[in-house]
């Protein structure tokens, strides 16, 4: 089977690309908006127990929204990047377990709802929740700064700043709906400053590892032909920005708007084309 990295990879990859393109609006807009309503309804006791915070629905919905990012990265995935991703998976479990058992580096916290099977108190699907946030930040920083070898300090700094911004949106919404809570409430929508110090540490390590292993030439070529690579970040903005809006957390809503504006600055994301990209299943 002939492959062509410059034009999007193998026949299987092209079929996946076509599927995502045909269903972009459903994946990037409908799923997160419905998800925001369902999660808030669950938190407010408006759904019966079988549906409220149903772990299967949470995992399936998250996986669907991650699909554009996963498909976007498939042609870029080489041996070095695969090793880095596996290392990040192990790192994600380790630092989350450390945080749950010792309170370091995020501060003492606990999960309030089930996010699927748990191992040692850590959700088994944790990498599905965490790693895409870092990948989105790294890809967006690459688009904004450029892929040149001499620009890595700027990409690294911007990537870390984007990770922190993402969590400044995520945590207030997650606390509002009871996904997790902190033993000591902080000044930022009940989230303590220690959480963001922890994200600065863990996010910097994750971004640096990806920055050092991403095949830049392949990534740049892929991004030229893959307009949906950051649709997962669109889903994130709509889901968690929407939940923050429903709870009146206006500063996180504004930061979600900053993320969306950053996406639009790349010139590779077109809201009009997203709205038009409804396939046969969506008509």
From TrEMBL:
An example molecular function term from Gene Ontology annotations: lyase activity
Highest taxon, organism lineage: Archaea
InterPro entries (alphabetical): BABR_hydratase (IPR053540), CruF (IPR017823), CruF-like (IPR007354)
Keywords assigned by UniProt, alphabetized: Lyase, Membrane, Transmembrane, Transmembrane helix
TM segment ranges: 25-43, 55-77, 84-104, 124-145, 157-183, 249-267
EC number(s) per entry: 4.2.1.161
The protein, known as: Bisanhydrobacterioruberin hydratase
Provenance organism: Halovivax cerinus
Gene: cruF
